[in-house]
Specification:
About 30% of the residues lie in helices and about 20% in strands. It contains nine helices and ten strands. The strands form two sheets. It has a five-stranded mixed beta sheet with strand order 3-2-1-9-10. It has a five-stranded mixed beta sheet with strand order 4-5-6-8-7, with no helix packed on it. Strand 7 and strand 8 form a beta hairpin.
Length: about 240
């Protein structure tokens, strides 16, 4: 089996298309099972969140199995639909870009009283299959010596007992830990200039939405390598 783990996409459909081409080329002569694990944060920040979801639904690489994990940004969208005012802060960390990608016109200045109206607009604009996609995302995925999750785990807690909040949000308590876990943790969420291939974890969020570098980790047996897009650009 060859596994490709894709880091945080954040609305960069152009980079996702490029990375898919690289993955297909890399796996062209591989005759075993091929799996892509997407680590979440498909939406927000970049300009094309809706288009990213469309590509994941309609244009996944052929002959690959796919696993889609939940990121904290997808959870924010789901929470916004339930209680828009309580999730008003989402506007400041990517919600505005996601709403725009779904064709929602935003007021010049957004206030708290706009939240319920915007949530209503999003409910109208979201295709049924998109909301089904968001609601079906997995919190984690384990295979062999690897455990795939969006943000990480709380060190010292068994993998089966990890809390969703930590899996979506944890940072320093996890990234600074040198503790060996039950498996090597493959994660995104915490942006680093270069991917971090460490003994206890592998971090592959290279800030695609503003660096133009979207990273895929390639795993086969004990081999670990990277595929990365090369476009720059500031969004």
């Amino acid at each position: 089996m060859r596994i490709y783990a894709v880091g945080d996409i954040h609305g960069r459909d152009d980079l996702l298309a490029e990375l898919h081409e690289m993955i297909v080329a890399d796996a062209d002569r591989f005759e075993g099972e091929k799996l892509i694990v997407y680590l979440g944060d498909y939406i927000d920040r970049g300009p094309a969140s809706m288009q990213v979801i469309e590509r994941l639904l309609d244009h996944p690489p052929l002959d690959f199995e796919s696993v889609f994990l939940l990121g904290n940004h997808e959870q924010a969208l789901l929470d916004f639909l339930v209680d828009a005012k309580a999730m008003a802060a989402w506007m400041n960390w990517g919600g505005k870009e996601t709403l725009s990608s779904y064709g929602i016109t935003l007021p010049p200045t957004i206030y708290l009283e706009h939240m319920e109206f915007l949530a209503g607009q999003l409910k109208e604009k979201l295709p049924d299959r998109h909301i089904q996609f968001y609601q079906s995302l997995q919190s984690s995925y384990a295979l062999g010596n690897y455990y795939f999750v969006h943000a990480g785990i709380r060190p010292g807690i068994p993998l089966q007992k990890q809390e969703l909040g930590d899996q979506l949000w944890i940072r320093e308590e996890f990234t600074r830990s040198q503790q060996q876990h039950e498996a090597i943790i493959v994660h995104g969420h915490s942006i680093t200039t270069n991917a971090e291939l460490l003994a206890n974890r592998i971090g592959i969020d290279t800030g695609a939405f503003h660096t133009g570098v979207l990273t895929a980790l390639v795993l086969e047996g004990e081999s670990q390598s990277l595929l990365q897009t090369g476009k720059g650009g500031q969004f």
